[in-house]
C-alpha cells in the first residue's frame, strides 16, 4: 500500500487556541487590508468600458495614455496583458468621457489610437487589414482586376482564418504563404490596403446601473450560499455544527479576499463564481470531518470530545490531503496554463483550497469543541470539566 | 450484492456510455460554445418602460383636458397624482353627470372616484400599467427581432431577460464589428403613412391585397416596379406568434405623414359597437393628409413602422373619405387588436427608449486562445490526477480512472443533450469537477483501506467502504450544490455556464464514483471465489 501519510496520531486539538489566534490575526489583517484598499473592482461592478488590443509591434503605453488623454478620455488604466512580447494592451475607462458623454467609448478609443499614417490611409479609402471583416474584405478583393470572384472569396477566407489564429497581421510577408495568394493579389493588397498598428481583440461596456445591480446580486449570492450551508448542516447535524462550519467559511472568504486585495487582482463575475465555489469546496472538507466526528461520537464510550475530534481528524487526514492536493494541482494548472482570462479566478481557488483545507481542520473543529465545552461548563455551573 | 444482477448493472452502464457518446460525438458540433469562446457580440438592452407610461399619462391628461373643453365643461386643472394617477380639480359642479360619462369614455378602465369638492381622481390600475409596459416591451422586442433578422447573422439569440422582463438580450455569434450593429439596433422606430402603388389595371382598390411573394409582386407589375415605389413587408402573425403570411406591399417612397405628425391614437367604438382606432394629426400634417386622402378615397394607405433600415407595414386601411387632422381606422378589429394597433401607432410616434446597458464583444482569435489555454489546463489537470490515482491506489486507481473518464464523458454528454452552453468559466468548472469527483473515489478508497487495516476481509471492507462513505458523499455534494444553486440564480452568461457545468459534474460523479466504481469492484470480488488481497 502506497501511502503519503502513514497512520497519523497528531494532537490537533491541544493547539486549538494557537490556530484560532493565528487565524484571528490573519482575518484582522485581511479586514484591515480591505478597509484600506478595498478591492480592484472590474467594470462589471463599477460600469465603464474596457478593451483588449493587440499591437503589431511593442506598444508604448505612455504614448497610448497621451493619445487617450488628448481625445478627452480622461486618465484611463493602460497596462500590458500577459507576456510583453505578445504586445497586448488592456485599456479601461470610466462610464463617462470628459465631455460628460456616457456610454460605450470603444470607438472613440480606437479613433484616438490610430496613428496619423493609418488615419491618412483610411481616409484615402484604403482598407485596414487588421480591422476589416471577412465580408468587407471579400467585396474589396472582388474588385481586384486579377482575381475572379471565387479566388477573391478564397483569399478573403484564408486571410480571415490567419487573423483568427494570430489575432493580428504583422506584415505582408506573413501573408505570403496563404492559400490563394498570388503575386498579383499581393500587389493589390499592398496598394489598396494597409496594415493597421493594432487589432481589437475584445471589448466590453457595462452601464453604471447594471454594475451596481451586479455587485448587489454578488453579495446576496455569497450571503445566500453561506446561509444555505448553515441551514443544511444545521438540519443534517445540529445548529452549533452549522455555526462552526460557517465560522470556517467566513474565515476562508475573508482571508482569500484579503489576499485578493493585497495582490491587486481584479474582481469580476467569474471571480465571484470562484468565491462561491470556494465556499462549496471548503464546506465539503468540513462536512467530511464532521461526518466522521459524528460517527465516532456514537461509538465513543467514555472518550473525551477532544479525543474523539482528534481521532476523526487523523482518520480523515489522508483523504483531506489527497483530495486537497489533487484539487490544488488542477487549480494551479489552471492558474499557470489557463490563460489571462481565468487567472484571477484560478487565483481565488489556489489560495482558497489551501485556506479551506486548513480551516476545516483548524477552525471548524476547534470552534465546535470550544462551543460544546462552553455549553457544558455552563451546565455544570462553571466547573472546568471536559465533556 | 448478488452476482446475478451484475450483467444488468453493466448493461445500464454501457447504455449510459453509449448514450453520452452518441450525444457528444462529434464534440465540435454538439457542444454549444458560449460567445466568450466562439467570438461574437453580446448586447443587453434596457427598455425604458417608464417613458412609455409617462407618455401615456401625459397623453391622457391632454386628451381629457381637450374633451372637457370640447364639451364646454369648465375646470381648474388636471394634475398628475403620484406616478400613475391624475386628479381633475374644480370641475363645473353642475355637470357632474356629463363629467362622469366623459371620464368613463376616456379612462373607463381606470379606477375612478369622486373626491367631492368637484374633484375627481383617476388612477391607472396595475392591470393597465402592466398592459402598457408589456406592450412597450413586446413592440420593442419585435422591432429588434426584425432588425436582427435583417443583419443576416447565423443563430442569433434575442430574448427577454430580467425580473420585469424589461431587458432584451441579443447575442450575435461571429459578429465583430459591433458599432454598425449598435447603430441598427438603436435606430429609433418611426411611423409613416404611405400611399399604395396599385398594379396597372387594378379595379377593386379597396379590397386589393398585396401578393405573398416578391416574385408575385413583380409579376403583377409586369417585371419592374415604378421608380417612385418601394416594397415593404407585412408580417401577419397567428395568435401563438408564428408567422402565417407575408405580404409584399408596393408603396410610394415619399411618405404622406411621419411619426411626429401623429398627435394621438386611441381605441374607440363605431356606432355599431365595433372597436376602431381614432387618431389625430397635427394641423400641418392634417392639411397634407387632407390632400392625399382626397386623391385616395377608396384606395388603401399603408401604415409603416420601423427604423431607417428595416420597416414593416403594420396595417393598410382603406380611405373611406377625405381626412384632415382627425380620422378613424376601422376594420372589424377585436378590442384587443384595436388597442394594440393604437398602442403601436402611439409608440411609433414616440418610440420607447431603449438603452444599451451591457455589451461585450470577443474576437474569434481571443476565443480560440481561450479554448486552447483552457483545454490545455483541463487536460493537464485531468491527466495529472489520473496518474496520481494509479500510482497511489494501484489496481483500484484504475477503477478511479475509469470512473473519472466516464464522469467527463457524462458531463459533456449531458451538456450536449440539454443544449447547455460551454463557456470559459465552464471549462474551469470542468477542471474543478475533476478535482471534486476524485474526492468521492478518495473517500471510498481511504475508507476501504481503513477497514482493511482493522483486519476485515476484502469483501466486507469494500461493502463497508462504500456504505459508510456514501452518506458523506451525499452531504458533500449537496453542500456544493447549495453554492452552485446561488451561483446559477445570480449568474449571467458565462457564470451560469460555470454553475451548470459544476452541477452536472457533481450529479455525474455520484453515478460514476458510487455506482460504476462499485460495479467494477464487484467484477473482481463477485466471481464466487474469495479474494484475499485487494490492490488499493
TrEMBL record, chain A:
Membrane topology field: Multi-pass membrane protein
GO molecular function, one term: protein-transporting ATPase activity
Keyword Transmembrane: yes
Quaternary organization: Forms a complex with SecD. Part of the essential Sec protein translocation apparatus which comprises SecA, SecYEG and auxiliary proteins SecDF. Other proteins may also be involved.
Stored PANTHER family: PROTEIN TRANSLOCASE SUBUNIT SECF, PROTEIN-EXPORT MEMBRANE PROTEIN SEC
Role description: Part of the Sec protein translocase complex. Interacts with the SecYEG preprotein conducting channel. SecDF uses the proton motive force (PMF) to complete protein translocation after the ATP-dependent function of SecA.
Name of the protein in question: Protein-export membrane protein SecF
Lineage of source species: Bacteria, Pseudomonadati, Acidobacteriota, Candidatus Polarisedimenticolia, Candidatus Polarisedimenticolales
UniProtKB/TrEMBL annotation, chain B:
UniProt keyword terms in alphabetical order: Cell membrane, Membrane, Protein transport, Translocation, Transmembrane, Transmembrane helix, Transport
Name of a matching Pfam family: Sec_GG
One biological process term in Gene Ontology: protein targeting
GO cellular component: plasma membrane
Keyword Transmembrane: yes
Domain Protein translocase subunit SecDF P1: 138-196
Annotated GO MF terms: protein-transporting ATPase activity
Membrane topology per record: Multi-pass membrane protein
Cell compartment(s), UniProt: Cell membrane
Membrane-spanning intervals of the chain: 7-25, 373-393, 400-420, 426-445, 466-491, 497-517
Domain Protein export membrane protein SecD/SecF C-terminal as annotated: residue spans: 353-522
Domain SecDF P1 head subdomain, chain residue ranges per copy: 249-351
HAMAP family noted in UniProt: SecD_B
Assembly description: Forms a complex with SecF. Part of the essential Sec protein translocation apparatus which comprises SecA, SecYEG and auxiliary proteins SecDF. Other proteins may also be involved.
Function field: Part of the Sec protein translocase complex. Interacts with the SecYEG preprotein conducting channel. SecDF uses the proton motive force (PMF) to complete protein translocation after the ATP-dependent function of SecA.
UniProt family annotation: Belongs to the SecD/SecF family. SecD subfamily.
NCBIfam families reported in the protein's UniProt record: 2A0604s01, secD
Protein name (database record): Protein translocase subunit SecD
Amino acid at each position: 500500500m502506497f501511502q503519503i501519510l502513514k497512520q497519523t496520531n497528531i494532537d490537533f486539538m491541544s493547539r486549538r487556541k494557537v490556530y484560532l489566534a493565528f487565524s484571528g490575526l490573519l482575518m484582522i489583517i485581511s479586514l484591515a487590508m480591505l478597509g484600506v484598499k478595498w478591492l480592484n473592482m472590474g467594470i462589471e461592478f463599477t460600469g465603464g468600458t474596457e478593451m483588449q488590443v493587440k499591437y503589431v509591434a511593442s506598444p508604448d503605453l505612455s504614448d497610448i495614455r497621451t493619445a487617450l488623454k488628448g481625445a478627452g478620455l480622461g486618465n484611463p488604466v493602460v497596462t500590458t496583458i500577459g507576456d510583453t512580447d505578445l504586445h497586448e494592451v488592456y485599456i479601461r475607462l470610466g462610464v463617462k468621457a470628459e465631455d460628460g458623454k456616457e456610454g460605450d467609448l470603444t470607438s472613440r478609443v480606437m479613433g484616438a489610437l490610430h496613428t496619423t499614417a493609418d488615419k491618412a490611409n483610411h481616409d484615402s479609402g484604403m482598407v485596414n487589414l487588421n480591422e476589416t471583416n471577412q465580408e468587407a474584405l471579400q467585396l474589396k478583393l472582388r474588385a481586384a482586376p486579377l482575381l475572379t470572384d471565387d479566388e477573391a472569396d478564397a483569399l478573403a477566407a484564408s486571410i480571415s482564418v490567419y487573423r483568427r489564429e494570430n489575432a493580428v497581421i504583422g506584415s505582408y510577408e506573413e501573408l505570403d504563404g496563404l492559400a490563394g495568394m498570388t503575386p498579383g493579389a499581393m500587389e493589390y493588397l499592398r496598394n489598396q490596403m494597409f496594415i493597421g498598428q493594432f487589432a481589437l481583440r475584445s471589448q466590453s461596456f457595462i452601464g453604471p446601473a447594471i454594475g451596481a445591480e451586479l455587485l448587489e446580486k454578488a453579495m446576496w449570492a455569497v450571503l445566500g450560499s453561506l446561509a444555505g450551508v448553515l441551514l443544511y448542516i444545521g438540519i443534517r447535524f445540529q445548529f452549533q455544527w452549522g455555526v462552526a462550519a460557517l465560522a470556517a467559511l467566513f474565515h476562508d472568504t475573508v482571508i482569500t479576499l484579503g489576499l485578493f486585495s493585497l495582490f491587486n487582482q481584479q474582481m469580476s463575475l467569474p471571480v465571484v463564481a470562484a468565491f462561491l465555489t470556494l465556499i462549496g469546496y471548503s464546506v465539503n472538507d468540513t462536512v467530511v470531518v464532521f461526518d466522521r466526528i459524528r460517527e465516532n461520537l456514537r461509538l465513543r464510550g467514555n472518550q473525551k470530545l477532544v479525543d474523539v475530534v482528534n481521532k476523526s481528524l487523523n482518520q480523515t487526514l489522508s483523504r483531506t490531503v489527497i483530495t486537497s492536493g489533487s484539487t490544488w494541482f488542477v487549480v494551479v494548472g489552471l492558474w499557470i496554463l489557463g490563460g489571462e482570462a481565468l487567472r484571477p479566478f484560478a487565483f481565488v481557488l489556489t489560495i482558497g483550497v489551501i485556506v479551506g483545507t486548513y480551516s476545516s481542520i483548524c477552525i471548524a473543529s476547534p470552534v465546535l469543541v470550544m462551543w460544546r465545552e462552553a455549553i457544558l461548563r455552563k451546565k455544570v455551573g462553571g466547573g472546568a470539566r471536559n465533556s | 450484492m448478488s452476482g446475478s444482477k451484475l450483467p444488468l448493472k453493466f448493461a445500464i452502464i454501457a447504455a449510459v456510455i453509449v448514450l453520452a457518446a452518441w450525444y457528444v460525438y462529434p464534440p465540435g458540433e454538439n457542444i454549444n460554445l458560449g460567445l466568450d469562446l466562439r467570438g461574437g457580440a453580446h448586447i443587453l438592452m434596457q427598455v425604458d418602460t417608464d417613458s412609455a407610461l409617462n407618455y401615456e399619462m401625459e397623453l391622457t391628461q391632454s386628451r381629457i383636458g381637450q374633451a372637457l373643453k370640447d364639451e364646454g365643461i369648465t375646470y381648474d386643472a388636471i394634475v398628475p397624482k403620484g406616478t400613475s394617477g391624475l386628479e381633475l380639480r374644480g370641475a363645473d359642479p353642475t355637470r357632474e353627470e356629463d363629467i362622469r360619462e366623459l371620464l368613463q369614455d376616456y379612462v373607463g378602465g381606470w379606477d375612478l372616484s369622486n373626491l367631492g369638492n368637484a374633484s375627481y381622481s383617476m388612477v391607472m390600475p396595475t392591470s393597465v400599467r402592466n398592459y402598457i409596459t408589456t406592450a412597450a416591451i413586446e413592440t420593442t422586442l419585435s422591432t429588434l427581432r426584425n432588425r436582427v433578422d435583417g443583419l443576416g447573422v447565423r443563430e442569433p439569440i434575442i430574448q427577454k431577460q430580467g425580473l420585469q422582463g424589461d431587458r432584451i438580450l441579443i447575442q450575435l455569434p461571429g459578429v465583430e464589428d459591433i458599432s454598425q450593429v449598435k447603430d441598427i439596433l438603436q435606430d429609433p422606430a418611426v411611423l409613416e403613412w404611405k400611399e399604395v402603388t396599385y398594379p396597372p389595371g387594378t379595379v377593386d382598390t379597396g379590397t386589393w391585397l398585396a401578393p405573398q411573394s416578391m416574385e408575385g409582386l413583380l409579376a403583377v407589375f409586369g417585371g419592374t416596379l415604378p421608380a417612385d415605389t418601394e416594397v415593404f413587408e407585412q408580417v401577419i402573425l397567428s395568435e401563438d406568434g408564428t408567422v402565417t403570411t407575408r405580404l409584399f406591399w408596393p408603396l410610394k417612397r415619399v411618405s404622406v405623414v411621419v411619426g411626429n405628425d401623429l398627435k394621438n391614437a386611441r381605441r374607440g367604438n363605431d356606432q355599431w359597437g365595433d372597436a376602431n382606432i381614432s387618431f389625430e394629426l397635427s394641423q400641418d400634417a392634417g392639411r397634407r393628409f387632407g390632400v392625399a386622402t382626397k386623391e385616395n378615397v377608396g384606395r388603401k394607405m399603408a401604415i409603416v413602422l420601423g427604423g431607417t433600415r428595416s420597416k414593416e407595414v403594420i396595417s393598410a386601411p382603406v380611405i373611406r373619405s377625405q381626412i384632415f387632422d382627425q380620422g378613424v381606422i376601422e376594420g372589424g378589429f377585436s378590442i384587443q387588436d384595436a388597442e394594440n394597433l393604437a398602442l403601436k401607432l402611439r409608440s411609433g410616434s414616440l418610440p420607447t427608449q431603449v438603452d444599451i446597458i451591457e455589451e461585450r464583444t470577443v474576437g474569434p482569435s481571443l476565443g480560440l486562445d481561450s479554448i486552447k489555454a483552457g483545454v490545455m489546463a483541463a487536460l493537464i489537470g485531468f491527466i495529472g490526477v489520473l496518474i496520481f490515482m494509479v500510482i497511489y491506489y494501484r489496481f483500484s486507481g484504475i477503477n478511479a480512472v475509469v470512473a473519472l473518464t466516464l464522469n467527463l464523458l457524462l458531463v459533456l454528454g449531458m451538456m450536449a443533450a440539454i443544449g447547455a452552453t460551454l463557456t470559459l468559466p465552464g471549462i474551469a468548472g470542468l477542471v474543478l469537477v475533476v478535482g471534486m469527483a476524485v474526492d468521492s473515489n478518495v473517500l471510498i478508497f481511504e475508507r476501504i483501506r481503513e477497514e482493511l487495516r482493522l483486519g476485515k476481509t476484502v469483501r466486507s471492507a469494500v461493502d463497508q467502504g462504500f456504505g459508510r462513505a456514501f452518506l458523506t458523499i451525499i452531504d458533500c455534494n449537496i453542500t456544493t450544490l447549495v453554492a452552485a444553486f446561488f451561483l446559477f440564480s445570480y449568474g449571467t452568461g458565462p457564470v451560469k455556464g460555470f454553475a451548470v457545468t459544476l452541477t452536472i459534474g457533481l450529479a455525474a460523479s455520484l453515478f460514476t464514483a458510487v455506482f460504476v466504481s462499485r460495479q467494477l469492484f464487484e467484477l473482481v470480488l463477485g466471481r464466487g471465489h474469495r479474494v484475499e488481497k485487494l490492490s488499493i
